[in-house]
Write a structure and sequence with these properties.
This protein has 209 residues and is an all-alpha fold. It folds into 2 domains: 54 residues, Orthogonal Bundle (Arc Repressor Mutant, subunit A), CATH 1.10.10; 151 residues, Orthogonal Bundle (Tetracycline Repressor, domain 2). Helices cover 78% and strands 0% of the residues. The protein contains 9 helices and no strands. Helix 1 crosses helix 4, helix 2 packs across helix 3 and helix 5 packs antiparallel against helix 7. It is globular, with a radius of gyration of 19 Å. The model has no long low-confidence stretch (mean pLDDT 89).
């Protein structure tokens, strides 16, 4: 391994170290109360080193969302590449895939939903913002392909497939955020999976011809 390769590997290792520390700090303190100094302390690095990799805590916050979007994109591609599924079955598989991503890291995906509707996006570098937009577009694009197929086969109502994709995504994120807030108030109210299944069935009935 050459010097350049070793430096790049060390850079990626250090970046990962910072992101792991950031996730713990955001979990313990919440985004608003967390500081870059807190993250530096958790990572056992100097604040100056943290700023070499991320210009602010918003970029760190968004970078965690970027990783979950990458994982979601992999799950979307798996659904799209599964042979012999009807459009309705693909919607079922898509909902399951999205729930699996949520279970993989609930905190990050909830943070991602908040991120998408906050001022935080304005503080990101153009490169990071472009990456987030690209991955989000790919995931929604996968949904759009399912709706387009269903419309062409006469299974789904003839409405704009992008609009149907946006509604499906909004339904998922809305249910996740609402059920999460209920669970905070009462830990026994852990009905997310069953509620998503009901929501998906109602949605399918609504888009079927």
């Amino acid at each position: 391994m050459g010097i350049r390769e070793r430096k790049e590997r060390e850079k990626q290792r250090r970046r990962q170290q910072i992101m792991v520390a950031a996730k713990k700090v955001f979990t313990d303190k919440g985004f608003n109360k967390a500081t870059m100094d807190d993250i530096a302390g958790e990572a056992e690095l100097s604040p100056g080193t943290i700023y070499l990799y991320f210009k602010n805590k918003e970029e760190l916050y968004a970078s965690l969302s970027l990783r979950i979007l990458q994982y979601l994109q992999l799950k979307v591609e798996q659904v799209l590449n599964t042979p012999d599924l009807t459009p309705e079955q693909k919607l079922d598989a898509m909902m399951k895939a999205m729930y699996d991503v949520y279970e993989f890291d609930p905190l990050v995906i909830i943070n991602m939903f908040h991120l998408q509707s906050s001022e935080t996006l304005k503080n990101l570098s153009p490169e990071l913002l472009a990456d987030l937009k690209e991955l989000s577009a790919k995931s929604v694009g996968g949904l759009t392909r399912i709706f387009q197929e269903g419309i062409e086969k006469g299974i789904f109502i003839d409405q704009h497939p992008v609009a149907l994709s946006d509604i499906f995504w909004a339904m998922f994120s809305g249910v996740v955020l609402w059920m999460t807030s209920k669970k905070i108030i009462d830990a026994n109210k852990d009905y997310l999976k069953s509620t998503l299944e009901i929501a998906n069935e109602i949605f399918k009935q609504g888009v079927k011809k």
